[in-house]
């Protein structure tokens, strides 16, 4: 829990560590080859030890691993590190991916994820393309394959499978060793795929219609004929062990197949496998699950199958907050709502659709939309903000892969590449000329009266009122290879894969970045915004701001130490930045979070900052929470101080209140009671007052 590392075993294989003094704290991830380890630390640095030939010594790559690393992966003999600027650093056995033969130039930027087999790597880029390298027998050669619009990659021992968008819906492309899934004999069935999962030697694909298709080594789950009838419909999720698969169905039952020694035979516990939500060996929300079906909540034990806890904040895994309400997704795939009824706090009209199968929830200013495992969408809340999807319901019944929320509009991406929108009529139904361009959209963003979408080819499509950013024609020649969009109330900012930022829209809200154009011409890795200003974080840890000075666009007037900033967050009026050492700085409107001096001594070892419209909440190592900003919008957490001293995993904000998910699946709320700060009506137990 303190982030330290202990090693033991054969010294030649990493069981002895000469750099132990570097592993006493702040380690967040460990990866391993056959004979070496690499550890990622909270400050973005990497520590290696073990056999130098297998990556125990990073050699020439060492200096590049001292900062900015966000992800590690390993083959049997080499490591790969993805950095925050989208570049990839490799070391170890060259033939097993330690050297980027013939593809190094494509790994200098834009990489967002990485996957590995025994001897090869596959990197997914922000534009949906894939770069592979390493042993060709293990998938290191994808020559002749069309790997575009890729949304997911997974791997067996020596083969890869990629989910790609196509006209017929999401399909699967495989390559590598055919005996381990690299050659799919069921290719014709792999249409409208929503998830792919793998064991050591086989793949399983979940389709939008709830059926499962398998291929690869029969002994590792590639042959599902024994359970074929049970997995041809109503499956909502699949997961795997080393040699077996398990499928969760909409009725809460579980079907398993594959190697019995690795969980492929569940017959001896089948009578207990009911009302199951999601099955995962490392799912943190189940850490407190007891063998008898109970779980811990504080000092009390509760039966997870007891229907009396339906609709209560027990077993929560994620939160979403609109302007005035919250929606909590539970481990059983159900959703609980509270807060202002007109902002989505009341979901009784769609309650029957929110009892199971929900995988994610997003929001606009006054409504929620839930994406279900079967590819359908359920919406509720203010109709003017997207709470009524009935007029386009025929387009939301299946095939939806992602839902995004803007100010008053929802946008659903479908497996056929189309984009379906609803909410504000002026923005949700653009003219046909715009609609025809909205294909293979990867992200959408909105100001108060305009929208912008990035396509998989990196181009940007805009619509809405020109003064609010709805017309990007003046900068269209610069809007190429775009990977991120951000929006204030009246302007847009786009970041390209080359680290360049392009702006347009209301000049006073950040649409004019001429004063800082030289600082935005390279090296930008992230964008953040208030209601009237932008902040750009660069790869070297520096920050650039522009827009309304009173709303945070004034950093050039400040004397902070801007080095090594690793995360930006914002309210509607102020910015906050977490530095690599875990300390925090803030600027903008001092009454809305721009001044954190009153709690600066507490802001150490901070790992994440969240916000309402006028206050911040920082989660520290160990799960303690520190708040500041408008006292009436969540800046004062004294009423729940005792409950926020440890164990908080994540926080969500509405306009004026916070909700925090703890490790035991409970939720703590504070702030404006009318916008969700009071959750007493959906709490299973009374939360003690601070002075009790």
TrEMBL record:
Cited InterPro entries: Ran_GTPase-activating, RCC1/BLIP-II
Protein name, entry field: E3 ubiquitin-protein ligase HERC2
SUPFAM superfamilies, alphabetized: RCC1/BLIP-II (SSF50985)
Region of interest (Disordered), ranges: 672-692
PANTHER family: REGULATOR OF CHROMOSOME CONDENSATION (PTHR45982)
